[in-house]
Design goal:
By secondary structure, the chain is an alpha/beta fold. The chain folds into two domains: 8-116 and 128-160, Aspartate Aminotransferase, domain 2, CATH 3.40.640; 190-289, Aspartate Aminotransferase, domain 1 (Alpha-Beta Complex). It is 41% helix and 16% strand. The strands form three sheets. It has a six-stranded mixed beta sheet with strand order 2-1-3-6-7-8, with helices on both faces. Strands 9-11-10 form a three-stranded antiparallel beta sheet. Helix 2 (45-54) packs parallel to helix 3. The chain binds pyridoxal-5'-phosphate. The site of pyridoxal-5'-phosphate has 7 residues, from loops.
């Protein structure tokens, strides 16, 4: 935020992590305009185009690619294209999508794309992963009050000198990421990994439907890395979460405004198909015991 933005940003919000992006901007003294469709709806390219036409002074658009809190994936290609038509920067939170689905950062022209070690790469938390465009680097060169720790130019300088990073990095996570990437390569590369995500996610979704449950987001916008599931009528999502926990399965509770109405089943990291089957059987038992 402080490397590239002088005054104003447009934040696309369709869940709690989009809200977080706006909070980060505000905490850095940036004025925020919000594009926030009803929960469960994706950000639309037309809506974004309209907002950018009405707010020509925004410098960048912030987008959460995969909204983990509602289990929804936004149409990245169309949205980045809309932003580029208006010649704005695009920042993408890819925390729960990078590694789980295709993101063609340079082809699309994403200016700042960031993620973390602990989601789709299946490595313990502690490492931020990101990329920065030439344009964003140019803006950083003349930005004032950007601090030191996250100054893109400081990081670039060390990299150019072959020194690695300006601060001591999370070395165990880098070693873990290296191992995870080698494992992906050995098994057939990115396509193999993305297909595995689709397969695991679909298996969970089929199981949910077999148990008479439905997913929260609009059909066609369901996330490939986490399913957000509507709790049955008269039951709180937290009850299902607790009962599954008693059976030894750690799912996730609903998040933010959906905390009571939903629960979530992620498929990020190292998961055996057999364990998905066991989990779905246990879920069936929980649902029929309600
Ligand atoms: C889309 C998204 N953005 C941001 C975050 C925040 O990540 P962290 O907890 O590492 O700060 C999360 C965490 O789940 C997330 O899913």
């Amino acid at each position: 935020m402080r490397n590239c933005i002088r005054k104003k940003i447009l934040c696309c919000i369709n869940g709690s992590f989009g809200e977080r992006f706006a909070e980060v901007a505000e905490a850095n003294g940036v004025t925020v305009v919000k594009l926030a469709p009803p929960l469960g709806e994706p950000i639309s390219a037309e809506g974004l185009h309209d907002m950018l036409s009405k707010n020509p002074d925004v410098e960048a658009v912030a987008l959460t690619h995969n909204e983990t809190s509602v289990g929804l994936i936004n149409p990245l290609r169309e949205l980045v294209a809309a932003v580029k038509k208006h010649d704005k920067l695009i920042f993408v939170d890819a925390v729960s999508s990078m590694g789980g689905t295709e993101i063609q950062v340079d082809d699309l022209g994403i200016d700042v794309c960031f993620s973390s070690s602990q989601k789709c790469f299946g490595v313990p938390p502690g490492l931020g992963i990101g990329s920065v465009s030439e344009h964003a680097m140019t803006l950083s060169a003349t930005a004032v009050n950007k601090g030191w720790y996250f100054d893109f130019k400081v990081w670039e300088e060390d990299q150019k000198k072959g020194r690695g990073t300006p601060v001591t990095p999370a070395i165990p996570q880098i070693a873990g990421l290296n191992t995870a990437l080698k494992m992906i390569e050995r098994n057939g590369g990115r396509k193999w990994y993305f297909d595995l995500y689709k397969e695991r996610n679909q298996r969970i979704r089929n199981g949910i439907e077999r148990h008479g449950l439905s997913t929260f987001p609009r059909k066609g916008s369901e996330s490939p890395t986490v399913n957000c599931i509507n709790a049955p009528e008269g039951v709180e999502g937290g009850t299902i979460y607790e009962k599954m926990r008693e059976k030894g399965f750690e799912l996730a509770e609903g998040y933010g405004p959906l905390k009571k109405r939903t629960f979530r089943i992620g498929n990020m990291g190292y998961i055996e198909m057999g364990n998905i089957n066991l989990m779905l059987n246990a879920l069936g038992d929980v649902i029929s015991s309600l």
